[in-house]
């Protein structure tokens, strides 16, 4: 780690203008992005006495090797640039918002010819409209069941939709009038879309007009003595009103607002947001934040609104309020220092005026207090669920450092695992953990190229191939192969793609490389690193049988306590690599790729392969069988049996068997 004084800008070179700055590590990877009204005063605070800094801030400045800045003209430009850089570089030390749970939403797939209504969890997609989030999936299903009576839209999956279209009969919902049955042509695509759009309008808050229209139709049907139609419309109105009763009216003036509240301590904070549309609470959502430096509530408000609504604007077209990414009003516990600039930026995202204020009295103040109580409750529950989580991760990294004799804590750990079936279809996985947490965007999958005589025939050789490919790529992308000196060129930075400005895939080495296995696997990985001249990456192996930790050239394993946080972290890393490898292997097998040595036998199709494997149980037993035994399998004659035996064992063994 470098001391901040080694890269501190020269006195007088940092301007006093507003701007955005970023800290980078020795390999050019951006690790923190921030903005300031005065770059000089803000950056000077990082280069004060290191011992007086917040622990996470101290770790950040010690991990950095350079600081850069960009001067902007206005606070609005600074907000936009900071948001863009955070999204582009994903700095590890910036505040990260994690959903405290995965909330279900009601999704409407408007990007399909026949839109579908369904419960959904996961990332937002363009062309899909979302309503919620809701606290429970059953709440969505109850509401949807009520509304399908009035808006009989499709809710089935694509496979069910195609199947009923092929057989020409609707499903049960079509027969009980809870689906318009577009699969069998009962309604056209345009008519079905109109039903879906009315459904979206109702959930968006345009309820009074729709109920008045149904009331008018019911009265007309009654006057025309169409009593069955009038009774059906009456029941539809009742269903709509029951659906509305499930959404409490909290603001009688039809307010369109998001209400935000925080609960926090020195290390973490909880955020709660109530989405109020047309005076009703349409959804509730929560996040947990890891603080990087001392942060006030006003600063949390600014950073949260910037990241949350910036992301909502990027998904414009999938917002749940008439495609508006930002509501008309945002109620917060405290105004940020540059509230006017933030409001101006939000106004630009919405396209019309956005109010940003602190509620002082009345119903809005009461609702803000309710949201604050929810934030406090969520924070308490988070602390109970994850008591000592950050401390446990730090303790685990420290235990690993001490047990393996490392120079520093392994902040980045990579693990390699191999998966195959009797030496065929060999694949491998590489997973990455940073600060004790999985970094899935850096996971990699490998198809082993060694074949039956090389890497594919044994785990150590396969691990050696993966390690060689991974670290050759690292040497190439970091510039080490060409002798490029890190940090000497202010324009061309090793590890950074000059075209995109993004980190290259393999430009950063781990502090610790873990392999799944014992001494043979560890020695194979260590030999490759020595061959490539890499000396700053530690290697260890975790054997499954007794959970022993093996080091290169060490005859005895390192034994960690069964209750050790360090062992628990290594197990999680190893198990995640195993899961990732198995998943990839199953995907390849499901796509019909090479699965057996029997594929090399001329004229032996899938049916005969299955017959052989069923008869002998495995390829190994089949190899050990004589040609006469193979000929006993139904459907095999002497000639075919001899061909199978020769393909699996070679001509010499066939001649010996004949003798």
From TrEMBL:
The keyword Signal does not apply. GO terms for biological process: nucleotide-excision repair; SOS response. Residues 16-95 form the GIY-YIG domain. Residues 208-243 form the UVR domain. GO terms for molecular function: DNA binding; excinuclease ABC activity. The lineage of its organism: Bacteria, Bacillati, Actinomycetota, Actinomycetes, Pseudonocardiales. The keyword Nucleotide-binding does not apply. Belongs to the UvrC family. Interacts with UvrB in an incision complex. It is found in: Cytoplasm. Residues 478-503 are annotated as: Disordered. Residues 259-529 form the UvrC family homology region profile domain. Signal peptide: none annotated. This is UvrABC system protein C. Keywords: Cytoplasm, DNA damage, DNA excision, DNA repair, Excision nuclease, SOS response. PROSITE patterns: GIY_YIG (PS50164), UVR (PS50151), UVRC (PS50165). Coiled coil: none annotated. The UvrABC repair system catalyzes the recognition and processing of DNA lesions. UvrC both incises the 5' and 3' sides of the lesion. The N-terminal half is responsible for the 3' incision and the C-terminal half is responsible for the 5' incision. GO terms for cellular component: cytoplasm; excinuclease repair complex.
């Amino acid at each position: 780690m470098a001391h901040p004084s080694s890269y501190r800008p020269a006195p007088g070179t940092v301007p006093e203008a507003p701007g955005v700055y970023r800290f980078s590590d020795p390999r050019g990877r951006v690790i923190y992005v921030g903005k300031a009204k005065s770059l000089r005063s803000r950056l000077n605070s990082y280069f004060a006495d290191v011992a007086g800094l917040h622990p996470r801030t101290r770790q950040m400045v010690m991990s950095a090797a350079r600081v850069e800045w960009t001067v902007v003209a206005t606070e609005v430009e600074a907000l936009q640039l900071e948001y863009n850089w955070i999204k582009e570089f994903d700095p590890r030390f910036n505040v990260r918002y994690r959903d405290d749970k995965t909330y279900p939403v009601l999704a409407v797939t408007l990007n399909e010819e026949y839109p579908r209504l369904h419960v959904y969890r996961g990332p937002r997609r363009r062309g899909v409209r979302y309503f919620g989030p809701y606290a429970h999936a059953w709440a969505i299903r109850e509401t949807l069941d009520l509304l399908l009576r009035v808006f009989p839209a499709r809710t089935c999956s694509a496979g069910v939709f195609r199947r009923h279209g092929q057989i020409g009969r609707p499903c049960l919902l079509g027969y009980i009038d809870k689906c318009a049955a577009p699969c069998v042509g009962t309604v056209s695509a345009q008519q079905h879309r109109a039903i879906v759009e009315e459904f979206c309008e109702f959930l968006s808050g345009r309820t009074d007009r729709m109920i008045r229209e149904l009331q008018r139709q019911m009265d007309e049907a009654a006057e025309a003595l169409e009593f069955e139609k009038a009774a059906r419309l009456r029941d539809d109105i009742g269903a709509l009103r029951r659906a509305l009763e499930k959404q409490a009216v909290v603001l009688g003036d039809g307010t369109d607002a998001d209400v935000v509240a925080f609960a926090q301590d020195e290390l973490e904070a909880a955020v709660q947001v109530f989405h109020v549309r047309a005076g009703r609470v349409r959804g509730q959502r929560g996040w947990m934040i890891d603080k990087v430096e001392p942060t006030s509530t006003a600063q949390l408000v600014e950073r949260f609104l910037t990241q949350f609504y910036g992301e909502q604007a990027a998904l414009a077209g999938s917002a749940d309020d008439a495609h508006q990414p930002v509501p008309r009003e945002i109620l917060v516990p405290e105004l940020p220092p540059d509230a006017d600039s933030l409001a101006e930026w939000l106004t630009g995202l919405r396209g019309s005026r956005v109010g940003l204020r602190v509620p002082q009295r009345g119903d809005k103040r009461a609702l803000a207090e309710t949201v604050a109580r929810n934030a406090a409750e969520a924070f308490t529950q988070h602390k109970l669920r994850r008591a000592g989580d950050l401390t446990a991760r730090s303790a685990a990294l420290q235990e690993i450092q001490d047990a393996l004799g490392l120079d520093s804590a392994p902040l980045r750990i990579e693990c390699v695992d191999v998966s195959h079936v009797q030496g065929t279809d060999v694949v491998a996985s590489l997973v990455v953990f940073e600060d004790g947490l999985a970094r899935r965007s850096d996971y990699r999958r490998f198809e082993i190229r060694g074949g039956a005589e090389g890497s594919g025939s044994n785990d150590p050789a396969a691990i050696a191939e993966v390690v060689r490919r991974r670290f050759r790529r690292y040497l190439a992308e970091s510039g080490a192969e060409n002798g490029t000196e890190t940090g000497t060129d202010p324009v061309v930075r090793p590890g950074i793609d000059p075209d995109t400005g993004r980190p290259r895939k393999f430009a950063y080495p781990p502090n610790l490389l873990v392999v799944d296995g014992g001494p043979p696997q560890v020695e194979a990985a260590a030999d490759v690193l020595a061959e490539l001249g890499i000396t700053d990456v530690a290697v260890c192996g975790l054997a499954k049988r007794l959970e022993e930790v093996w080091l290169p050239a060490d005859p005895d394993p390192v034994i960690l306590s069964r209750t050790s946080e360090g062992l628990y972290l290594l197990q999680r890393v190893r198990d995640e690599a195993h899961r990732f490898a198995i998943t990839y292997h199953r995907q390849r097998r499901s796509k019909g790729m090479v699965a057996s040595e029997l594929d090399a036998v001329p004229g032996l199709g899938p049916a005969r392969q299955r017959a052989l494997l069923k008869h002998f149980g495995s390829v190994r037993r089949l190899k050990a069988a004589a040609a006469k035994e193979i000929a006993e399998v139904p459907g095999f004659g002497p000639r075919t049996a001899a061909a199978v035996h020769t393909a699996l064992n070679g001509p010499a063994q066939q001649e010996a068997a004949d003798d």
